[in-house]
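Quick start: what a row looks like.
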Amino acid sequence: MNFVSRTLRKGFFWSYPRTSWQWDVLCVLILVFIFLTPKSWFESGEFQRSRTAQLNARQVIVLGADVVGAQLDRSEIERRVRLITGNPETEVIDVHQRTDPKGNVIGYEVDIR
């Protein structure tokens, strides 16, 4: 009984020297915990909700010039984006032209919310 209580006391107060095998086992257990613990265990629900809200708040859609045409027509782009997303309330925040090295318009990068 004395052996068990002494072992429990040493384990609880961790009175083993650094050069012992018990110390090595503890270090391995700590490393296993660090590297094998899922990241989701440390994220609070509030953080996940705010992160999801940020990701959902702004998205990017790429439209080819053949879909919209060579002219930048914002109303046509909005119509196409709403058709693609299936959401009639999609809001176009910004439109960026993408050109090839010769300067020809090859598509549009559309920021939506």
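That is the whole record. The longest strand covers residues 92-99. The chain is about 50% helix and 20% strand.
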